Amino acid sequence: IMRRPAHPYSVNRPVYSEDSFSEEHQNICRKHKTLQDHVKVYLRCDATRVKRVACSLLPIIQWVRLYNVKKWLVGDLVSGVSTGLVSVLQGLAYCLLASLPPWYGLYTAFFPVIIYFFLGTSRHISVGAFPVLSLMVGSVVTRLVPDEGPIANITGFEGLTKDEQRVMVAASVTFLMGIIQLAFGLVQAGFIVTYLSDVLISGYTTAAAIHILVSQLKFVLGLNIKNYTGPLALIYTLEEIFAQIENSNIASLVMSAIIIVVVFIVKELNERFKAKLPVPLPIEVAITVIACGVSYACKFVEKYDVDVVGKIPVGYEPPMAPSVEIFKLTVMDAFPMAIVAFAVAYSVAKVYAIKHEYTIDGNQELIAFGVSNIFGATFRSFAASTALSRTAVQESTGGKTQVAGLLSAIIVMIVTISIGFLLEPLPKAVLGAIVIINLKGMLMQMRVVGFLWKKDRPDCVTCKEARRLYDIHIMVLYNHVTCHITISSACGAFSSPRCSLLANISGTDIYRDCKDYRNIFAPSGVKIFRISTPIYFANVEFFRNKLNEYLGFNPLRVLRKRNKALQKIKKLLKSGELQITEKGLLYMTSNSNEDSDDEGNTEDLDQPSDYKDLPLQVNWNAELPANMRVPKVDVHSVILDFAAVSFLDISAIKGLKSALKELIRVEVDVYIVACDRYVLEKLHSCSFFDDEIKTSMFFLSLHDAMLHVMENHPIILEYNTLNEKVSCVSPARLYGFSVTHTVFILEQTDVDMEETNI
């Protein structure tokens, strides 16, 4: 038995060829800018442009004028001290990964931070050592200056100790890495990070975590194992560890095991009760202080032969010039280091920029990190990026701007020039244990492999290949990492997506770019968005940004503003400062006129608006009480034309799902039309649908979706000023087809309307 469709329609229009359609409907000839036009705009110079360029190159000019001393200074002070202590500890620990004396990690936690304070656009990231980057530096260092065997034939090595030679290699490759980042920034190549998929970065960092874990076992076990380089180095390292495991230092092993367990438990408690804790418990700092005290009091070096940090020189060493000879030997290493450092820093910065509702500039970030690494390398620091754990400390302890970063650098400087001797009895096993426990996040990324294998095998292959290629000691050449990143970026750059807003050609069921035709119908509150390319990791952010641009608002920002307003309304209602009358909300007291700067739990602000305890429905487009400001949304429906979308990868599905949920949560109906059957099946297999995103939002054609929208949101085209008579034109008549069995209910508060059958 076949069911009759609920709302059948028929189309009545001529049969069009492209030529006949162009003759009947006038096409607007748009002038596209030539290369010469773009060059003229780029080279134009006036006072406004000079000011904009200056603010762009020195972002501090913009935010320092808006610095709220009363509200932000205390938070930045607390954050700066907390982050500074963590930076000291992580600088010492990650320096071991770079195969350098530990105190050079303090240089990396100081010099790059100073430059980033002036040039960076992120207000929250903590600049300094990053474990993956430290490992990459260590690979270069041990290749040119191995523990055993001949060192590289470099003129500048004459008369230097092995440690000094290694510092020269690390500083030189960092200097070259900074030059590459600066060059990318000057040519506006910040877009390159979009061609590194989440899966690629995940596989890359997971493989690095495995190498870091193995490299720290010698400190945890207290073994004297040389650093291997070249093919199968990871296997050789494990082989020697198992061969010498009977000689493990029991004191180092027991101490490391206790620290790993304690730090793990406290970190889990911090994560579980983060909403209730004012600041995370600084367990790493506390455990380091205790370990130093116990090591000194119990004389671990003399009694148990424990390897400790040892003598830390007071003050800073004079600047040094990089070696051009090392440049020639490490140029293929510096390139992936520059890309990975920027990709990680940009990803972390973007998370906090979205959370705190400000923007970051990818090109300026490249310039900032380029200059930071060049300056730092001059003073013997090694490659700097950021670490998620350290950045989380800086943000969660109240940091509002890079003033917190500057204060953390001052704390590191104080340790370097005055109290560094207190860290001399610190066992290296403690540093190794802290490095290992901080790898948890990167190692847990391996769980995605099983999911990808079930849902999207091409992405899973990419992930495995990224890890396999990153295993620089197992692969024949370390340069394969460079090739892999280059190939991945090139593959992502094959297509340049084109997005457009569509409108209906009046009297037809045909839709065209609204910029190309005059005789079009675009009902208010409806946006028809088309992307003419497959969506994948490289362009999903472009898709989301372009959609927000055409909509005229950022749905996530609107949602957060609404939820903050709801929290305030509930609070004022509970305290009696707001009362509900027949006309709505009334503001009762004058004490609550100031907007609260407390954002609360940002994760809660991203959730659907909770009207459960609110005795009325809020009209977000009306004026709100208590000086609350929420962006108005004049769009009620968004139609996404997926006719040209033949492929979606895992990253695109995640990005699309996030974008749709943001729109749905701000009460915007979303419809997807002309979706390929393969794409729809993939969405089902990848758990795309849930309580918010339902299959009912998919329509066979754009015209079907538009009819559905017009049924739910009928339009009143004209009525007279005396409200004596209201005339309505059916949307169906505008479209040149007839609709049967359709009832439109027109709601008008000050006009007596009846149900109208069309």
TrEMBL record:
> Cellular component GO terms, alphabetically?
membrane
**InterPro entries in UniProt:** S04_transporter_CS (IPR018045), SLC26A/SulP_dom (IPR011547), SLC26A/SulP_fam (IPR001902), STAS_dom (IPR002645), STAS_dom_sf (IPR036513)
Q: Transmembrane: is it a keyword of this entry?
A: yes
Keywords, ordered alphabetically: Membrane, Transmembrane, Transmembrane helix
Q: Mind listing the GO molecular function terms for this protein? A: secondary active sulfate transmembrane transporter activity
In the UniProt record, does the keyword Membrane occur? yes
Query: TM segments?
Result: 72-94, 100-119, 126-146, 166-187, 199-221, 241-265, 277-297, 334-354, 366-383, 403-423, 430-453
Q: What protein am I looking at?
A: Solute carrier family 26 member 3, tandem duplicate 2
Q: STAS domain spans which residues?
A: 516-709
Where it sits in the cell: the answer is: Membrane
Q: What is its main location?
A: membrane
Q: Membrane topology for this entry?
A: Multi-pass membrane protein
Q: Which Pfam families does the annotation name?
A: STAS, Sulfate_transp
